[in-house]
Design brief:
- 41% of the residues lie in helices and 16% in strands.
- It has helices at residues 12-24, 46-50, 64-74, 88-93, 95-115, 151-169, 193-202, 222-233, 264-275, 279-282, 301-307, 315-328, 330-338, and strands at residues 3-7, 29-34, 54-58, 78-81, 120-124, 175-180, 182-184, 207-210, 216-221, 253-256, 261-263, 283-286.
- The strands form 3 sheets. The chain has a 7-stranded parallel beta sheet with strand order 3-2-1-4-5-6-10, sandwiched between helices. Strands 7-9-11 form a 3-stranded mixed beta sheet. The protein has a two-stranded parallel sheet with strand order 8-12.
- Strand 5, helix 6 (151-169) and strand 6 (175-180) form a beta-alpha-beta unit.
- Helix 7 packs parallel to helix 9 (264-275).
- It starts with a strand and ends in a 12-residue tail after the last helix.
Length: 350
């Protein structure tokens, strides 16, 4: 029986990936770990647990002893590391937690995968490691330099550097890494733009747009992201050559995007339309956060060519379905809001 170990399994993307694996590979044994911070929820994978498809462990990926125990218990062939602190606003308020999880945690897992000879280790990163997109740069690629400018993205970029170093220092290891456009879909904690805006409107509050609302992002539905990660997990091994030392595009790194760029203002326009509301009554412009990236976009050509990656869900269709998911699943997010006075940062008072 094939065994896979998913870290950050109770988070947004990790839980969606666990459901994806369980549905696609009924014979896989799935082990998952999550430290269950305030921003992940065991309920996301409760159905998999109760159905015997997932063995859940509560632990911190920085705890080497706990991680080694899980590795030895389940003897996974594959490790997929989603575990990360991942919110720019919170990282500005408290960078230390982000550096610990996103750097030390990544290295702890890599070292155990090295020592215990895991078949393939996949590290999930973010488009934000590439930083601000210059006006003369049409898009980022796997060859783009790491140029993070916020504490969150810098901690992920530091983790990326550790991953790249293991790729090239330990040739016996099979390591892959991915970056992805902004994700959206079910089970996303209501602190990010889309779920925060939806839940604010559903509770009679206004959705907030930072600055002028024209910050632009590339968006990918979480299901399509999971499909891309799965393609990486089961792809042919990439042989790392000496040329990869100066050309990271030759490393087993894959960037995912739906080639669909949209502004935050346009997103909230679709949300209010799906909810049958008026934009001017339910959206307000607020102070921008410090050091806010204006625009970033990645080119998924390598994933399309080498993996046959092709998104299946259009942005407007996926966003409208996501709005309806939050409408239909108030019992999932209302307890979160009850335990938090506000998940919206007010940068005018910082």
């Amino acid at each position: 029986m094939t065994s896979i170990f998913i870290t950050g399994v109770a988070g947004f993307i990790g839980s969606n990936y666990a459901h994806y694996v369980a549905a696609k590979y009924p014979d896989y044994h799935i082990a998952g770990v999550d430290k269950l911070s305030d921003f992940s929820r065991r309920e996301n994978v409760a159905a998999l647990e109760s159905g015997g498809r997932l063995k859940f462990h509560k632990a911190d990926i920085c705890d080497r002893e706990a991680m080694e125990k899980i590795y030895r218990e389940h003897q996974p062939e594959y490790v997929v590391n989603f575990a990360a602190e991942s919110h720019n606003d919170r990282a500005i308020a408290d960078p230390t937690t982000f550096v610990r999880s996103n750097v030390l945690g990544a290295q702890t897992l890599l070292d155990l995968s090295r020592i215990l000879k895991i078949r393939r280790h996949v590290h999930i990163s973010t488009i934000e490691v590439y930083g601000e997109q210059a006006s003369d740069v049409p898009f980022f690629t796997e060859a783009s330099p790491l140029n993070a400018k916020t504490p969150y993205s810098a901690s992920k970029a530091a983790g990326d550097s550790i991953v790249r170093s293991y790729m090239q220092t330990y040739p016996g290891m099979d390591i892959c890494m991915t970056h992805c456009a902004n994700n959206y879909g079910p089970y996303q904690f209501p602190e990010k733009l889309i779920p925060l805006s939806i839940t604010n409107m559903l509770t009679g509050k206004k959705a907030a747009l930072y600055g002028d609302g024209l910050h632009r992002r590339d968006w990918l539905h979480v299901y399509d992201h999971c499909a891309g990660i799965d393609a990486v997990l089961h792809s042919a091994r990439v042989q790392i050559t000496e040329e990869a030392a100066t050309n990271p595009a030759l490393l087993p790194i894959f960037d995912f995007s739906a080639r669909h760029e949209v502004s935050n203002r346009e997103i909230l326009g679709i949300v209010v339309d799906e909810l049958g509301l008026k934009f001017e009554d339910h959206v307000e412009y607020v102070a921008d956060r410090p050091n806010h990236d204006r625009r970033y976009l990645i080119n998924p050509l390598k994933a399309e060519t080498d993996l046959g990656f092709k998104p299946s869900i259009s942005f407007e269709q996926g966003l409208r379905e996501t709005v309806r998911w939050y409408v239909d699943n108030r019992s999932w997010w209302e307890p979160i809001l009850a335990g938090n006075q506000s998940l919206q940062f007010d940068w005018s008072k910082k």
